[in-house]
């Protein structure tokens, strides 16, 4: 693949979220009541723009995720991560972001 066919790849760390009855997003716990950090990457056909931590995105399986951190990823390494589908223009509250960032520190 030539250089002109390459695109900028970001590795994104995030936690799935659910909307509560008030419409605010909260971190989603798994069946064992644990909240886990996962990673994805930007794909060739990803829609939208990354604006910063706290932004929501959709995965290819339509899972809503809060982005906690983004870092550059080598184009050749992109197949190590699952691509995401779309950036959303919605943000989580500062409290939810702070809790997620605390969990990210434990993860990294």
TrEMBL record:
Domain spans labelled DUF7671: 4-98
One Pfam family hit: DUF7671
Protein name: DUF7671 domain-containing protein
Originating species: Limosilactobacillus gastricus DSM 16045
